[in-house]
Amino acid sequence: MALTPYQQLEQEFRRLHAFRSAASVLRWDSAVMMPRGSSDLRGEQLAALETEGHALLVSPRVSRLLERADANAQILEDWQVANLREMRRERDHSIATPRSLISRLAKATSRAEMKWLEAKQKSDFSIFAPHLEEVVNLLRDKAALVGKALNLDPYDALADEFSPGLRSEQIDAIFTALGRRLPGLIHEVIDHQAKRQPTHEITGRFAASKQRALATEVMKAMGFPFDRGRLDESEHPFTGGVPGDIRITTRFNPAEPLTGLMGVLHETGHAMYDVGLPEAWRGLPVGRDRGMAMQESQSLLLEMLICRNRPFLHYLKPLLEKSFGVSGPEWEVENLYRLLTRVRRSLIRVDADEVTYPVHILLRYELEIEILKGELKVKDVPEAWNSRMEDRLGVRPSSDAEGCLQDVHWAVGSFGYFPSYAIGAVIAGQLYESLRAARPDLDEEIAAGQFSGMFEWLRQNVHSLAASQSMPELIQQATDKSLSAAAWVRYVEGKYLEE
Amino acid sequence: MALTPYQQLEQEFRRLHAFRSAASVLRWDSAVMMPRGSSDLRGEQLAALETEGHALLVSPRVSRLLERADANAQILEDWQVANLREMRRERDHSIATPRSLISRLAKATSRAEMKWLEAKQKSDFSIFAPHLEEVVNLLRDKAALVGKALNLDPYDALADEFSPGLRSEQIDAIFTALGRRLPGLIHEVIDHQAKRQPTHEITGRFAASKQRALATEVMKAMGFPFDRGRLDESEHPFTGGVPGDIRITTRFNPAEPLTGLMGVLHETGHAMYDVGLPEAWRGLPVGRDRGMAMQESQSLLLEMLICRNRPFLHYLKPLLEKSFGVSGPEWEVENLYRLLTRVRRSLIRVDADEVTYPVHILLRYELEIEILKGELKVKDVPEAWNSRMEDRLGVRPSSDAEGCLQDVHWAVGSFGYFPSYAIGAVIAGQLYESLRAARPDLDEEIAAGQFSGMFEWLRQNVHSLAASQSMPELIQQATDKSLSAAAWVRYVEGKYLEE
């Protein structure tokens, strides 16, 4: 029997998935296993797979099939219509960006990343500036082309690649609300915490092997499927591989036993999302996660809202004592809790606590919009960064390295990515509120090391829906409210201003 | 400027290489890193990449380009003509085997491999027999189709996939010579060794970590590029990855410190071949190794002829003593030499010494030809195996597990592969004779841990030529003699019958 156009599209997109899933394992390998001298070769391998995928998406055959399947969409089930919509979105993105622009961007970002690293090491923005300029120019072209094709503002055209359907309008509404509340909130929290400081710091050395064993035990308790996934170490923690073979990485610092574990828990949040994606849709666009903001909501929900909290620390305390052979006041739940929820005005985003974190994002969002529009000249970025950082958070970087050179995102062309982090936090706050309402005994479950109820709720309300709906639709459905910062603010106030 | 048909072919085959090199790293990952539960998914990933490669090779575009490039071959350089010839060979193989047959074979061999494992564990050939029957039937179809397309005898059509250009005619000539000389030779050697047995066995436990460190040190001395390659552990040792990122695996048994090292040296022989392939031809058919027999010649040359020999053991002795903190009569060069060159009539091919090894291959070659022709019925294989084993080597398996069930090759459909092992040994013998003539101080160099001269000769005479010539042409050119068993027999006589 002849395949329908829709069925033929499924075949084509499963081919696309084969290229991408191979590339994904190769990227994990690059970060964890590959000898350093092989990076050029690996770059060629990845570029070749990427080229195949791009050629597939822009082929006349796929566009023809999309037209014919659209014309017959009435025979499709809902999830298939969603699948078709996601296929079209991917095709539109690819077809809007000419191959020549992709390749110029690849070269420019690869150069810019090297120069960024050098500039950061020497804390000298001027080394990086001309290369950032070049990247920005190319991104403006890309944003204009994709924006025209998808009928989006230039910034939204770029952001759509990371968090499909996320628009500046929503971001602005949420960030305006955060921007209004945060300065006062941070002030209150720091004030409040002044009399609630941890009484004991953790000192000593904790072997990486012991940290790994502990992290593995906790991941197992959470249901991470070690028969279909791994935990390894790499310079920068990430979650890679493919659903069905998920590869988490982290870093273990012998002096900071909690940092490595929190990193693992963050990645486990990502991983459990991937684990929960429906197997039946695997390899199809509808079966993918719902973008970076949603991904980040899952990692933050687990790390920040669940694990940096007393019930989880009740569960963790005996494990810490057993794993490291320790005891004493610094390992008491209340002390651990205070250590893990300290709020401070600090310069480095990745080390920031959850209360001040959004300020770092708001700043980057503002700046990257102005840079793209040409309202802020690249050469003026350091001064703009430093003065606004001082204005918004009350701390001023004394060097570019701890200021505008701290993140790699702009160097690699990821304009439009930063909002996903803060939107992810907001989503996490909103999901957490509904999760607590749905499971009144959540705290007791967590304290007892029972995580299945929580993950079951997330699976039903988020994971299993994959990309079948837009992110705001998913949130509306899961929480009965439209996406807003309100729940996150309530959560932070409740947690950090408790009496 | 428009690309010529030949240049377009280069592009197409570099795409093919991208699929294959991704698959190669994924296969390494499967054996070394992948969680066990992900094997079905990985199978799908590999099948998808394989399907892409097959589709490319059988595309009308590639056939059209081959015709047009052939018509203009006079403008090409020699290596490009060779490249074209290899492209055609690959296309011919792929186009001769219909997709449906490939997929039936894939399913049949996957089933057969499982049943083989079960049969081997229970030592019961009857569990495996019907599945082997099915594989053989499909292979007969494949052999007929490929044979017709390439104008080859059915057996040669299968063997050509493993060692391009190797024909039964050559195999028969060499195996006849070996078959005549071996029984007497084995008898003489065992007789001769009776008064030259090792005086001390090696006992004790040798930590895998120490074995790995020693193996790494020796590999470094040989010039293995650890900035573009790795050494890991897996159940079955192999050399994988891709040139530019070569992944060796081995097994370390704490009770057998020499076995693991010899395994590493065997794989290092393969790896150095891959390392020596010309970078300029990377990704093109002309740039590949010259098939399995040639590959095996490189691993056997290093393991058997170079390393299981006194000069190498002079180099190795102090390293063993330092690595394991040992000394004593069992670690003396002459004792190590005797331990590593013991000749015994034994049942298991992979454990056989280099003198009796070809007997195992001759037996399999005979049998697989008769099975394919239908002259030997599958059900009669165990009896044929056992009686001929007794006849040729004087030992009779007491069970199928140590008889016809010991190798996986037939289960996975690799009929035509076995000869490569013995032809590889013969090539190694012939290359070794020429290498010694070209480097009269070879023994002194090896004893001093200087391996660069040897590898330089191999690079010039074998590695750098890749697939630019046929294997017999390469041997003729490197040794000034046509391929024959004579040099190998001289080598074995000189080494094992020395006074």
Q: What's the overall average pLDDT of chain A, rounded?
A: 96
Portion of residues in beta strands of chain A equals: under 5%
CATH class of the largest domain in chain A: Mainly Alpha
Radius of gyration of chain A: 23 Å
Structural class of the secondary elements of chain A?
mainly alpha
Count of DSSP E strands of chain A? 3
SSE string of chain A, helix = H, strand = E? HHHHHHHHHEEEHHHHHHHHHHH
- List the quaternary state of the chains: homodimer
How would a crystallographer describe the biggest sheet of chain A? 3 strands, mixed
Greatest chain-chain contact = A-B, 31 and 31 residues
Domain count of chain A: the total is 2
Determine the fraction of residues in helical runs of chain A and give it as a percent range. Answer: 55-70%
Strand order of the largest sheet of chain A: 1-3-2
Q: Which term fits the overall shape of chain A?
A: globular
Can you describe what's shown?
By secondary structure, chain A is mainly α. The first copy, chain A, folds into two domains: 5-123, no CATH class; 124-499, Neurolysin, domain 3 (Orthogonal Bundle). The first copy, chain A, contains 20 helices and three strands. Chain A has helices at 5-32, 39-58, 60-71, 78-96, 99-122, 125-150, 154-162, 168-193, 208-222, 257-276, 292-307, 310-324, 333-340, 357-373, 381-393, 419-438, 442-447, 452-461, 471-479, 486-496; strands spanning 229-233, 239-242, 245-250. In chain A, strands 1-3-2 form a three-stranded mixed beta sheet, sandwiched between helices. In chain A, α11 (292-307) crosses α16 and α12 packs across α13 (333-340). The interface between A and B is medium-sized, with 31 and 31 residues. Chains A, B: Broad specificity carboxypetidase that releases amino acids sequentially from the C-terminus, including neutral, aromatic, polar and basic residues.
